[in-house]
Amino acid sequence: MIHLADYIDHTLLKPDATVADIKKVCDEAIVHGFKAVCVNGCHVALAKERLSGHGVLLATVIGFPLGAISTKAKAMEAEDAVKNGADEIDMVLNIGWLKSGMDDAVKEDIGLVKTAIGKATLKVILETCFLTNEEKKRACRLAVEAGAEFVKTSTGFGSGGATFEDVQLMKAAVGERAKIKASGGIRDRQTALKYIELGAARIGTSSGPYLVNP
User: Fold this and answer.
1) Residue 39, strand partner residues
2) TM segments (predicted)?
């Protein structure tokens, strides 16, 4: 039987999230035993302190939500996040570069972030709503070649979120070489379980408590 809490990245990335909101998300993750909490970079130190000693991983987002800042800026942002306590980095790949066929630049963008964070886990957000199926496959290949441990569907801020079809496509593209994180619009237990059945190893959601206690 699937223990859903083990898959959940409990997420709060709203621009108006307060300190009290961040503390609440961390406390919910501790109570429910979620795999991780995902917050914006300015909240990493606070969340790390709140989660200390409770076995919940801490993730943050890089180049979020557009993926269009410079590679150097992404790498510096990621390095700073790890220094402040982040265990995992969810970076947005450069969508415009991918669509322009600049595969070497996309791979370098991911690779330099991975180099900057060392042993920390790297998840690459494809933002699938903006990509063709061919581009999704290329993005998965480039992420794996650059050393990412995960490929992730969505930021939650694009025009669409995760779909069953995209998770199936991504799983076929990466095989066992990387894991899949489904995120964006996942708000009920049955949908989350379906994504896991299709191969997702993580579920990014702001509805974690509802998913485990519907």
Assistant:
1) 12, 60
2) none
Helices (H), 84-158: 95-99, 103-117, 133-145
Tokens of 77: 């942002």
Give the closest residue to 125 by CA, choosing from 104, 138, 103, 140.
140
| Number of C-beta neighbours around residue 175 at 10 A | 10
The residues annotated with a catalytic role in the active site are 90, 152, 181
Report whether CATH 3.20.20.70 matches the domain 4-212: yes
Q: Which of 182, 126, 147 is nearest to 4 (CA)?
A: 182
Give tens-digit pLDDT for 11-56: 999 999 999 999 999 999 999 999 999 999 999 999 999 999 999 9
DSSP 11: E
The per-residue pLDDT for 1 is 82
Structure tokens at 81: 């996040």
Q: What share of the chain is helix, strand, coil (3-state, %, to 5)?
A: 50, 20, 35
Distance (Å, rounded) from C-alpha 173 to C-alpha 213?
A: 33
Task: Round the CA-based radius of gyration of the chain to a whole number and report it.
Answer: 16
Give pLDDT, residue 159: 96
Query: 6, 11, 20: which is closest to 59 by C-alpha?
Result: 11
